[in-house]
Structure formats: structure tokens, C-alpha cells
Amino acid sequence: MNLFSEIEKTIERGFRRWTEKVFGPADSDQLLLLHRAILEQIEGQVQTVAKGRRVFPYSRVTVTLISPEEAKRTLYQAAFGERLETDLKEALDSAGCELPKGFHVEVETAAGGEGNLEIAYGVEKQEPKPPKPSEPARLSVVKGKTAAADYTLDKARTNIGRLAELTDADQRVIRRNDVVFEEGADEANSTVSRKHAHIRREGDDYRLCDDESEFGTRVFRDGRSIDVPPGNRRGEKLRDGDEIYLGRACLRFVE
Q1: I need a surface site. Which of 57, 116, 128, 209 has the fewest CB within 10 A?
Q2: pLDDT digits over 116-126, tens only?
């Protein structure tokens, strides 16, 4: 062997010592010949690419050891089943050969076939990883009083207003606010309408809409004020760091 010549003897000595101890000297000689034949065939699949880099192009190697005798098939499986992958990785790595991600070796046995050894090569299809779900944005209270200092925008729609619940003439709940500037708790709270605004989540985007509030809704961004038209379904797309003014109350949008 050429590629593995420097390390072949070391690997074979280790394999021989192990097989002699486990299976005895007679079986060890035969197993060593098979072991050497496998390494030789694997060496033939190594490719040299740009700048002399060595690569092994297959992520899956299936080694089938053939014998009509059941006892020998059992011997082959015991000798190569777990150890062969380790020896091949050591040989390829020591020879400076790059292995593909997920490289693994499978050992099988068969009662019939050509010769006493067959090796099949394949490439595992890498399943694309699902995109990591983004963390929801949040609102931080800057001016005005609410039950919490921060709110996570983890709903499709987050309502903002001055009452926790709005009811109709028959006392039926027609709206619940998620961010509530309680009436009378702060001077700025009085400028927040009962159903002032809402934030709609569209994938990774958040849009602020004014629900026809009395004192209006605006976004302060990069030193300028942007009015959010009342009743406009599209509203204003929010950006990290935007300050949202609901009358004189203020929230900061954080992504």
C-alpha cells in the first residue's frame, strides 16, 4: 500500500494482537488478510484534488464479508462489526485525508457472493436543518404605568389600551387589551384610549396600527416622528429601538 504505508503496520499490529487474544492465532491470520484487503480497497477510493488535498468522497461505506459457513460469518461480524470503522478513520486521518461529515462504516455478512469481500460506497443525503425560530420581540415601558415593565410580543396580535376589557351595551366582552395603561395610575395614562392601538406579528415583522385613538399614535425613529394613520390596516412596520407614543405614554420596541 502507498497511502497507508506509514500507518498500516501500526494498525495491523493492534488488530493482530486483539484478534489473537479474542479468537486465537489461527483465526487471527485469516482476519488479518481480510483487514488488509479492506484497507487496500478503501485506499483506491481516495481522491486528490486542488493543491494536493486528499479527500474521501463517500460518507457511507458498507463492507459485506462473504462465507457459506455460518460460523465464519459470525466470526467476521464479531471481529469487524465495531472495530473496522475506528481503524478506517484512523488510517484515513493519519494519511491526511479529509472525511465527509457523518462518515460511517456498516459491516454485513452474506452466505453467497463474488469472492469473500464486497464493498459498497454511498453518500448520505443531508436533510436541511429547520430554521431556528426567532425569539419574539418585546415592548419596554418608557413612560406611563402598566402592570409589567416589559411585554413579549408572542401573539399574532397584541392589543394596547386603557382598560383590561371592553364591553358592549349588553356587557359582552368585545376586546381585551394585552398592554394596559390603567386609568388614573399616571398622567400619561389618561392620553391612552380604551382601544388605542395594536401590534400585528407577520412572521418576523411587526406592524403597529392605530385603532382610531383620540390622541393619536406615532413612532419616534432616527430623530424624527412618524404618524401612524388611524384606522389604516397596514400601519407602520416597526424597527428595533423604535419608540412608540400612545398619546403621551411611551413604549420601546426591542427585537
Answers
A1: 128
A2: 899 999 987 76
